Task: structure prediction
Amino acid sequence: MKKLKYALFTGCTAKNSTPELMKSTEAVAKKLGIELVILHEASCCGAMHLQDFDDFLALTLNARNICYAEKHGLNLVTICNTCQLTLLQADERLKNDVELRARVNEKLAEVGLEYKGTSKVRHFLYALLEDFGVEALGEQVTKPMKGFNIAPFYGCHNIRPTSLHANVNGGENPYKPTSLDKIIEAIGANAVDYSSKNKCCGFHADLQSSPAAKQMTGNAIADAEDSGADMIITPCPLCHLNMDVQQKGAARAVGRELSTPVLHLPQVIGLALGLTPKELGLNHNVTKVDFID
Amino acid sequence: MSEVKSKKLTFKIFRFNSETDYLPVYKNYELEITKMDVILDVLNRVKWEQDGSLSYRRSCRHGICGSCAVKVNGKAILACKQNVFELVEIFGEELIIQPQSEKRAVKDLIVDKKDFWGKYNAVSPYLIAEIDEHPTCENIISKESVEMIDEADYCIQCGSCYYSCPAVNYNENFLGPAALAKSYRFTADERDSAKTDRLKNINQPGSGVWDCVKCFECAEACPKGVNPIGKITRLHNQVFAEGVALNNVATRHAVGFKDSIEKHGLLDEGELVRYSEGNIGVAKHLPEAFSMLTHGKIVLPWDMPKSENLDEIKTLVDSASTAKFK
Result:
């Protein structure tokens, strides 16, 4: 297989509050022989909030972000669902609206850049599935997660809206997504089927509508727990912050105890590939990961 | 499935009578389904051939009245538009037909939509303008102005988005995607004279645009391509553009992104929470901040990473900004 190489848009969270996502992504990529060129020049994607305030500025900044992947001649991968959504939205708008693209490129020219639209914008999860392949991933497993019941939590911004994502997420159906389930099976574990797996964790209204957001988080964790999950995994660090760091608050909001470890997707893949908990940054997880030493 | 002309399928249908029943039941109905059949054909044939007591709304059969909106396996659909074989492709052969909202069920698939209509009415869903009752010439609207409204006008009030919205489910005061998209329908209409009042109405904490959780369930559920969340984003933009944004946690949270990007390129997460909540409000986050600190999840201010080529970002923030916050 040709060596896979991508431009990695880390997003802010991986450089701030989820260092374990950064560590585990790099460790898994290295183990699988995938080269990641980190886009250190990139800015924040705006996370759908700058877009609420200043849509054109957010669009211009994201065009700049994509420019840096283009400069490397590489396709871009994200490791956060919301980064994926905002970058892909920007990419689609710029591809489909010549006038808007000209306005944005006029701004980018001030800093010597031009958006061309030549880099595909995909979440690392789908690059892994499509380019590396789930079977090839299964062949690399040295420590199968046998006997573990793992609940996939997909996160909104990788699967909705279909009209935006269909070309870059393998046509995942938001009402019955399967990508994480396939990875869970490939690493030798059982995928837990539960109705909250494609629901919202509430992250984007955490400060603005806190009681609703916390109940959404709490109910999703409770649903996974009641369906027999030993752990939850997610491809989104924002879902992770809500479900892991805020698990106690979410438990209070739904009036019951919750204690389910929540792992980032590359953390669980890494365990199956034989990487150590330290290499995967499991010491950073707040809700105790009780099945490792 | 495409080669199969017909197939025997069993449908589980939600049955409940709010006047006599304590709990609902799902009853099975077996039917021979052809590749042309839609869910409304299933409901009609069950009612006409198997069980006349099955209750559901239906009217136009052309996807324009919004009456027959139900859910199948959690997916909001118009029964008259939704092909059955397409659903089998997604969910397999176990298809469960449910009301839009189980907790609002009155009889089988019929729900009480009074909360939906209450919120719809709360956004004054009609043009407010001084109309010349005896015009002497046409009132011509430019193509660009019409395009501004465009898909927001396609709404048929079916409730698919509203009953798929988790923010509505967890916050009964939230106006919800249909009413907000309808509000935009008029704030974007150049003939309407109530834009400022409308924006003040949808800008209220607890009920307005800031309580949207950005899950895109509404965009996915809408059978008419209204894309309600896209309209909610435009309402956010209009709130700032018209100068009616309140100074509160939600607006500061949106604006704080720009400040942080200008300074670091990246987001300073801790500072964003402090700026949004204020120096007193931020105190409630201390327990989680402490557990993050002890797990190495907080970057201290002097270690805050910055984007490379930050000067480019500063230039663009300066040059491409289009919004202001008082």
Remarks:
- Strands of chain B lie at 6-15, 25-34, 69-72, 75-78, 95-98, 105-107, 110-111.
- Chain B touches chain A through 68 residues (CB under 8 Å).
